[in-house]
Each structure stands twice: as structure tokens, then as C-alpha cells.
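TL;DR need C-alpha cells for one chain.
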Amino acid sequence: MNGQLIQELEELGGEIHPASLKKCDEIVIDQPGFSARIALWGGHLESFVPAGQEDLLFQSDNSGGKGRFGRRHFGVPVCWPWFGAHQSDEDFPAHGLARYFRWQFVETGRFKNGDVKIVLRLASEDHPLIEEMWPQAFELRQVFRFSSEGFSVNFSAANLSAEPMVISEALHTYFKVGSSQMAEVHGLEKVNFVDKFDESKTKSHKTPVNPCEYMDRVYLSAPNECEIHDPVLQRKLLISDKGSASTVLWNPGPELSKKRKDMEDDDYQHFVCVETANALDDGYTIEPGGIHQLKLNVSVVPFEQA
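>> reply
TL;DR here they are.
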């Protein structure tokens, strides 16, 4: 790894921790207003902790599968270039390829307002297995922005091939909550969603989502803002996005959690996935030479002040 890059990271209060996940390094940043961890395996933002608060992101204690495509449930996995199961090959991993390969740490520094910047890159040409499974050349980048108020992820995908790319995707964020029974998701009222736990029927609701358990919903043509209200941790998580047409809510609930080998039995009680996505009918095409950006912003405010 570039020595100059390491020095610049250290000037930001950061360091590289070796072999944290799948024998890949992680970036750890410790600032007065927050701490953050990024796994180079999969480009996962693992953790973001504002000073004096609980982590905004959930991490399961279950280490998941041991193979390359064994999943873990934590942080902000990148689902790309397909969301969910592959349409034609059941042997391909769920939720694409980006989360299963090592990303490169390519840049660090500060934005003009002082926020911390970390940039990661994943190029298909660097991984023969990617080229075997997805023959169209691409380059992905994630620009992470951190401050004491919250974080953002700016994900971009460039089509370097001569053919159009048909894409579905998500930033599959696991938000930590004090209780999935008591948490509420606001902002998706009256939006049509596909209920994947009920034969993919199209539904809607007039009130906030509660409890946040046993759901796999794809809200189509969704608004670009929503909130998680957490009375247990006494905070509200404000979520906004750009470049996203879908919002996915997921929590397996108690029965499915017990059946999964990659999740602890009670994990479902401590998270709700609110995913910035382009899924199902909201998938899109990147033309040759084109770039698509997907941006997630997360901030936190006290429960009584929102």
C-alpha cells in the first residue's frame, strides 16, 4: 500500500488494521467527533459511531460462511451489479459481486468544510473471477464522507465495456436499533411496495412501519427521504439518497433468523435494513462509457428534537 497514502491517513487520526475480514485489512479512523471502520473486503462501511452514542450500524456476531461468497450481516454491503438472486444462474452469489472482493484504498483527505474523505476502488480487470462471472468491464468507486453529524456514501459505477449494462443494486444498510419491535420507519406511507414475503403482492400502508420485523419489501418509485424513529436509543436516523428509485425494508423476523446459519437467533431484534436501491422495475441501464451514481446520506438527531 502506498506509503504517502498511509501517512495522509495517519494525519486524519486513521490507521490500517491487518486481516480483519477474509484476511483483508480495514481502515480505522478515530476523531473527536466520531469513529469509523471500513473493511477493504467488499468495501463495507462496518461501523460509524458518533461521539457519546451507540453505533449507527449493526454488526452480527455471526461470522457467516467461510467461502468467498459466504455472507455476513453488518454495516453497508454493496449489492451490485444485481440485487437479490441472479436471474439466470442460481450458482452465482446473491446480491451481485461487489461485496465479495477486495477493494483498493486509493485516496484520503478532507473536504473543504473539514469532513473526512476516504475513497475505495474496485475494478473488474483486477479480479479474474469477476471477469469470468461478469464479462463487461467496469470500475466502481465509493467516496465515504464522515463528520460528527453523520456519514455519506457516494457510490459510482462506470461501464468500461462496449455493451450496455443492465443493473439492479442497493446499499444494503443495516441500521442498529434498540428494538425492532419498537422502532418505526417514517416516510414511506402510501407508497406502493412489492411484498416478497407474501407472493410479491403489491401493497401500501397509511401509517409508519411498525414493528420493523419479518418484512422484505421493495418500495417502488420511493421518496428520497425517510426516518428511523428509535425510542429505545432515543434518536432519529435521517436517511436521504440520490440516484435511487427504490427503498427496500428487510428484517427476517424470529422464525427465519433461527433457520439461518449466517445469523444469530436474536439478531433480528437489533436492526432494520433500510436500503438505498434500484431494484425490480427500478433497475436501469448504463450505456457504454456511462457512469451512474448512488448516494446515501445518514445523520442522527435526538429523538425529542426531530
